[in-house]
Amino acid sequence: MSRILPYLLSGISVGGQYALISIGYTMVYGILRLINFAHGDIFTVAGLLMVYAAATMPLYISAPLVIILTIILGVLVEKVAYKPLRTAPRMSVMISAIGMSYLLQNTMWYLTGGLAKKYPTLPWISDKINVGGTTTSRVTLITPFLTVILVIFLVMLIKKTKIGMAMRAASRDFETAQLMGVKVDSVVSFTFIVGSGLAAVGSMLYFTNYATVTPVVGAMPGLKAFVAAVFGGIGSIPGAVIGGFIIGICESFIKGASWTTFSDAFTFGLLIVILGVKPTGLFGESLTEKV
Amino acid sequence: MLKIENLHVSYGGIRALRGISLEVPDGKIVTLIGANGAGKSTMLRTISGLVKAESGSIKWNDKELVGLSIDKVIASGIAMAPEGRRVFSDMTVLENLRMGAYLRNDKDGIEKDIQRVYELFPRLKERNWQLAGTLSGGEQQMLAVGRALTSRPQLIMLDEPSLGLAPLVVQDIFAIIREINKTGTTVLLIEQNANMALKTADLAYVLETGNITMSGTGAELLVNEKVKEAYLGKHKN
Fold first, then answer.
1. Distance between CA A186 and CA A163 in Å, rounded?
2. ipTM score assigned to the predicted complex
3. Nearest CA to CA, how far is A168 from chain B (Å)?
4. In whole angstroms, what is the distance from residue B56 CA to residue A66 CA?
5. CATH number for domain B1-77+155-164+188-237, candidates 3.40.50.300, 3.40.30.10, 3.30.450.20, 3.40.50.170
6. What pLDDT score was predicted for residue B12?
């Protein structure tokens, strides 16, 4: 047990971070049927923003500020790259998403000069603590709880509130939702607000474990969160969360068995297997609909 | 009153409506009959704002609807039950009805109107908590109509409410359409089932390839030889 525990802890923690990112993928897909390839880069931008914000501000100001700025970026990306293409074929929107991803990445290259920026040590959450005989940082413990709390909050929001009901309606039938008076643009904006906000929280938890941020460093966790969303069934929030945790834990154990080289290969191998065996994932919406 | 003048609409490269003019007087049941592809659905979709008009005007209580966003049209007192029912299949019956009242904020009023829908369709009340996707076709149609009613519209537009339903259920639906109309709601009804539609309607228009070719009271068109031949399946002896 004492040999497994550290890997389990770090797996759950990384899994929670994947989960927070993957919600953004899955929600946007649910509403727009679009894979927002820029989502991983928005996650990276949040990391860089924290580098600059934490240099001059205390955490209780920098953290909310970074979340707000990331949300603004997410909504802006939607307005610039996706909204004008609302009636365009899906392929065009996808290309626009890929373009947006590279635009963000290259802007970051330009602004940082390609240098790795030192990620700040966030007080309290990066403190070392002792759990069952293993030393770990506090963020490892906080991540899964924070993730679960945020997800429960989000699920309640979608189940109980009016905007949540509008989201569910729009994800099922865009046009009929409009006939009920739902302003689809506000629903879409709201989706990007939630997705980007959670990505910002995820980025703080994720980068705390790393020394530096570079413009491309978010690409890999972004892709893995995407795999998590597909694994859980794209469009499903609980699916994305469970997918995130499963991938995080599996990777951690693979690393623990000293096959670190293969941990990425495992995740993407999983993607191929899912797409082959059960493309709708664990909780994906079934494709058959009663007409 | 809804007053449409010289309306032109192109849709996917096809000139779907070519200068339509028609009136829907308050408190009446007006029907638009015509074959598949005549432009009937396009008509309703244009009124609701889902499709953009090319030229012409749609006046609703003397207010121009062309160019308004869909939510503004709905807020002005128009509701639509779309073709193929389009209920939100993974939401409950009650949630579907709540969606219909999406633009309203008077909680008590909404509850009252939901109760009214349940009185109109007791079957829906029994299935209150059931997911809409599990309802039968007829029940889904009732829900689509009920959902349109919870916005408390002055004008309700029904697109092919009898499509794919058993004859007995069709009778029920039409009885309810008359019931809805009695409470003061204007009805604009699109149908392929010309026989039922003409029997129900006060006023009727015949739409052929984007043009209105005939109009009159329901009773008049019901005995019109051309209508009989083309839409009622009765040949001259």
1. 9
2. 0.92
3. 8
4. 50
5. 3.40.50.300
6. 77
